[in-house]
Amino acid sequence: MNKIDLCNKENGNIDYEIIHFPDEQAHIKLLSEMSHKQSVEVNVRITSAEWLFLLMQVLDICNRHGMKPIVKIWYLMGARMDRVMNFNEPFTLRIVMDMLNMYDADFFVIEPHNYKIIECANWGKLSANSIPDTDIVCYPDEGAKNRYICDIRKPFIFCNKKRNLNTGKLSGFELNLRGHDINGKNVLVIDDLCDGGGTFCGIAPLIRNHKPKSISLCVTHAIQRDGILKVAALYNKVYITNSYKDWQNESLPENVAVKVW
């Protein structure tokens, strides 16, 4: 298989170089010849508009070679604007997907934030079913509950959060125990993304008020180091992956575990 790894070049067998022209435009050039008798796999983290543009260049090269690549997207930008918030702001995730869908490729995304918009197969997620010693699951909001409720075979509680759509700031949380007694139980909070950690820091004290044995956090996409440090200080165990960044190479608190894709 021809493998172009835009996450970690050394993990691929197709060499490439990325340069920037004087006007700062990013440009990629493949340095190895691809075998037309083999399929093409592309690994990429779309963490910025530049990486989206570089991926589109790779897809253009593949398509002009008459090849339909398999694209494994570890992280897909646009999750914060995955719907129309108001008519003076863009529907960013739709823009990103419209650009990618111009090319002939099979897309697979790790833990897409919005399954309805991303019309491709889910490649993987950090499964709560694999986290040991979990008695009850907590969904931090309605979106998380809808995303995982069919996959996780555990009793659950959930939170409601209030957010100002104009500022994006959280204004409060409510915990719904659904009649469950979590005293002495191991509670696992699960969601797809942790950015600054505000949501998870906000609900941790609400859960602690009911005297659980432990609280753990499971998120696939960890964005900011500061966010990881904040939640690590409030949770007994934090599970993340290297989808956004190679966090396994960073110095993190001992209670943070990183799954490597």
UniProtKB/TrEMBL annotation:
Source superkingdom: Bacteria
Biological process annotations from GO: 5-phosphoribose 1-diphosphate biosynthetic process; purine nucleotide biosynthetic process
Pfam families associated with the record: Pribosyltran (PF00156)
Residue span(s) of domain Phosphoribosyltransferase: 177-223
InterPro entries: PRTase-like, PRTase_dom, Rib-P_diPkinase
GO MF annotations in UniProt: magnesium ion binding
Spans through the membrane: none
GO cellular component: cytoplasm; ribose phosphate diphosphokinase complex
Name under which the protein is recorded: Phosphoribosyltransferase domain-containing protein
